[in-house]
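Input C-alpha cells:
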C-alpha cells in the first residue's frame, strides 16, 4: 500500500475526473491521498470532495504564493482543523522564488499557521523555496517542533533536511526525484533515514518519469516509490511499507479515520 502525502485534487486539471483518479489510484496500489489547501476560498469545496471519499484526507491552510487570498487567522485555522477529515495545517511556509519586495506578509502568515498547528494538535505541511534560512528560523522561533510535520516537495540540501528532522519533521519527495538532472536530490534520498521519508505527487504538477509532461495524479506516486527503491537498493515493497507507516505516524488523525 502506498500513500500520496500531498496533492491538489480540487484543482481544475483533476476535479472533473475524480472517479477515474480514484480508480487509477487503486489500480496502482495507492490507498490514500492527502489534499493540501492553498486558500481559504477554495477550502470548502476541497473539504466537500475529501468528505465524500474515504480514500482522501485534507489539510487546511493558505499557500505562501497566494498573495491576494483571504488572510486566515489562528482561530479560524484551529476551528477548521478540528474537522475529522482535516489531518494537518497547510500548506504553508515561505516562497521567495515567485514573490518580490517586502515579504513580511508571507512571514506573518507562516507564523499564524505554526501557531494554529500547535493549538490544534495537527502537524504542519511546509513549503519552502529560495527561503530555507528564514523558513528554519521561523520554525525555531515559533516552536514548530511542538507540532511536527513534513517538508513537502523537498529540493533543499542535506543540512536543511537535518535541521528540519531535528525539529521532528519528515522529508517528502515528489516526482522531481525521478528527473535525470536531479542528481543532488537522488543522493539525498540515499542519505536520509527511510523512517523519515514520505512520498508525494504534488499533483497536478511535477509528473514523474515516465509520465513527465503529463498532468500528474496520485497514482503516479508509485513511480516516486520505485525510484527511491532503486536509489537505496531495496524492494519497492519496503519503501511502500515504511513510507506508509511514516505517514500514519505523522498524521494520527488519518490513522484514526482508518481504524
Amino acid at each position: 500500500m502506498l500513500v500520496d502525502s500531498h496533492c491538489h485534487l480540487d484543482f481544475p486539471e483533476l476535479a472533473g475526473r475524480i472517479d477515474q483518479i480514484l480508480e487509477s489510484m487503486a489500480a496502482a496500489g495507492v490507498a490514500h491521498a492527502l489534499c493540501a489547501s492553498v486558500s481559504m476560498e477554495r477550502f470548502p469545496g476541497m473539504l466537500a470532495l475529501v468528505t465524500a471519499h474515504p480514500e482522501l484526507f485534507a489539510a487546511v491552510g493558505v499557500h505562501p504564493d497566494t498573495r491576494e487570498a483571504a488572510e486566515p487567522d489562528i482561530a479560524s485555522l484551529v476551528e477548521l482543523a478540528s474537522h475529522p477529515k482535516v489531518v494537518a495545517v497547510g500548506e504553508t511556509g515561505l516562497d521567495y522564488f515567485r514573490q518580490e519586495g517586502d515579504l513580511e506578509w508571507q512571514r506573518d502568515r507562516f507564523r499564524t499557521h505554526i501557531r494554529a498547528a500547535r493549538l490544534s494538535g495537527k502537524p504542519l505541511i511546509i513549503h519552502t523555496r529560495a527561503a530555507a534560512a528564514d523558513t528554519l528560523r521561523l520554525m525555531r522561533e515559533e516552536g514548530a517542533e511542538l507540532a511536527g510535520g513534513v517538508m513537502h516537495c523537498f529540493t533543499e540540501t542535506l543540512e536543511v533536511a537535518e535541521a528540519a528532522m531535528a525539529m521532528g519533521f519528515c522529508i517528502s519527495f515528489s516526482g522531481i526525484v525521478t528527473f535525470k538532472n536531479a542528481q543532488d536530490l537522488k543522493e539525498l534520498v540515499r542519505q536520509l533515514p527511510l523512517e523519515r521519508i514520505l512520498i508525494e505527487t504534488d499533483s497536478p504538477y511535477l509528473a514523474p518519469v515516465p509520465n513527465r509532461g503529463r498532468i500528474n495524479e496520485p497514482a503516479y506516486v508509485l513511480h516516486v516509490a520505485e525510484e527511491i527503491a532503486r536509489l537505496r537498493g531495496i524492494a519497492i515493497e519496503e519503501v511502500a511499507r515504511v513510507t506508509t507507516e511514516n505517514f500514519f505516524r505523522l498524521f494520527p488523525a488519518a490513522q484514526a479515520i482508518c481504524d
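The chain has a mean pLDDT of 97. Strands lie at 2-7, 30-36, 56-60, 86-95, 124-129, 149-151, 169-173, 197-199.
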